[in-house]
Amino acid sequence: MGSMPEPIKEEFDVLIVGAGFGALTLLHKLRKQNLKVKVYERAAASGGVWYSNTYPGARVDTDAPVYQFYDKEIWEDFTFKERYPGQKELQRYFAHVESKWHLAKDIEYNKRVEAAKFDESRHQWLVECADGTEVYTRWFVPALGFASQPYVPYLKGLSDFKGQVYHTAKWPQWGVKLKGKRVAVIGTGASGIQCIQECGKVAEHLTIFQRTPNYCLPMNQGLLNEEEEQKKKKSGAYQAAFDTSYTTFTGFTFDFYPKNTFDETPEEREALYQKLLDEGGFRIWLASYQDMLFNPEANKVAYDFWRKSVLARVKDTAKAELLAPEKAPHPFGAKRPSLEQDFYEVVSRPNIDIVDLNTTPIVEITETGIRTSADGSAHEADVIILATGFDAVTGGLTSIDIQGTDGKTVKESWANGTRTNFGLALSKFPNMFLMYGPQSPTAFANGPTCAQVQADWVDKFLKMLRKQGVTRIEPTEAAIDRWVSRVTEVWDGSLFPLAKSWYQGANIPGRKVEPLNWTGGLPPYIEMINKSIANPELEDWVMVRSV
Ligand code: NA7
């Protein structure tokens, strides 16, 4: 009796994993090349982090209008209601994009990619999903974002807790009732700050477990008036903002102030800092003196100014010292500051306590709360919120069993350090391109700007490869060596290494500490990656032209 024939597997030209900003713009572009493209998304809708992060207060930290796709057909008839839109509105936005670009027919939701292996006989990836689907794809694009793998630290006794426990990134879509509850929040990163700011207003009691203070900056939130925004669109102001975003260091509409801190008098400095603080957002971080993130003395002046602004808002001196200590625990801006609206007023309320985990670490979670080294009895809680972040930047990719041509997974290949060419491609993982991955501007650039730059590159690169009949390509080890050194050199020249941050994987115990992002600015990055398209035959890539 002959064996059963293998079921014929569906074949795609391009399979993209994830349906966030990067994936949607790439799908839209590649379809115009008449490629057969599919997106597999593990969630029930598109949006990436804007689908899963539904915790109270979740909101973007980029101000209008550059947190969106720059295609006119998308922005001409969609206006955000707020300068910094919240998660719900971003979901509404993604629905708009999907319908405008007719994307849904090429996206499969609730589809989790679990493994992928390169088939040398076909120059295709064989991709496996949790539901048993197996498909072949010539080009494979994990577009997983930098925050797709939530991190839960080991907390002794957590499973004994009789109340509710939620990680901010796995918040139930239907919400959680916090009104009148005793709430404990562990973590004060962006998610923790946003969550505290909202639930502090409704909880009966809130206890914040803080390990590192977050140097929060005033958001200067505001409503956007539809008519005014339409006028700006017509006058070219939107297009001008989009164009500008490609020319600035971080993909926003503003850039570093072209002077060093001590080139100006203390009065001039004070005036600039105040102006940037009043304008709001990341300006006091990323539109400040150009030496602020490189020179420790310059940085200290900026920190002292910021601290003074917090002390003016938090009257309780003990709380103020925890939130903005006299001695900075790390340089100003070396760890990502969060934006706030009334965080400092909320935490000043008498029903909110801050526990300093440096002096009183958590000993265990009990049935009824959290016990620290200083407590006889636990901090009682009905709900524990884990705002403990992500295995950021690399965690999404290393959690999938993607096998290279040497049989090693991405995780195994990167055991001694992350290695990519431009954050876009890996050696021994042919025909695989990353969107928003490690060693690219990723967390150091406005998300949509970076995603559009990289989608544009993948689009052009594939066009060029197809024109030349290339069916297999991977970067050389030499090109990767060069890129990793470049990323490290730029990082080491800044103050960023001095903060124990997820920017360098330092938030995950036992993980190698290394720069996970390109911190040399967006414009040089764009120039470098585009050069590699112009000269693909040069030493950077190994290409094969037939199967
Ligand atoms: P973050 O920024 O990584 O914040 C996680 C927070 O959790 C941070 O304050 C950590 O303290 C804290 N943490 C982590 N592990 C522990 C343990 N074991 N005990 C106590 N506290 C802990 O994640 P977010 O979700 O807030 O934000 C991620 C990014 O997403 C954000 O920057 C935006 O770009 C969007 P630490 O600071 O390490 O001392």
Give the cofactors and ligands: ligand NA7
Q: What kind of assembly state do the chains in view correspond to? A: single chain
CATH class of the largest domain: Alpha Beta
CATH topology of the largest domain: FAD/NAD(P)-binding domain
Total beta strand runs: 19
* Helix/strand class: alpha/beta
Mean pLDDT, nearest integer? Answer: 96
Helix content: 25-40%
Instruction: Give the count of helical stretches.
Output: 17
Number of domains: 2
What is the terminal separation in angstroms? 33 Å
Any overview of this molecule?
With 547 residues, the chain is α/β, with parallel strands linked by helices. 30% of the residues lie in helices and 16% in strands. The chain has two domains: 10-149 and 392-544, 3-Layer(bba) Sandwich (FAD/NAD(P)-binding domain), CATH 3.50.50; 158-386, no CATH class. It contains 17 helices and 19 strands. A hairpin with a 6-residue loop joins β14 (369-372) and β15. It is globular and about 70 Å long. The model has no long low-confidence stretch (mean pLDDT 96).
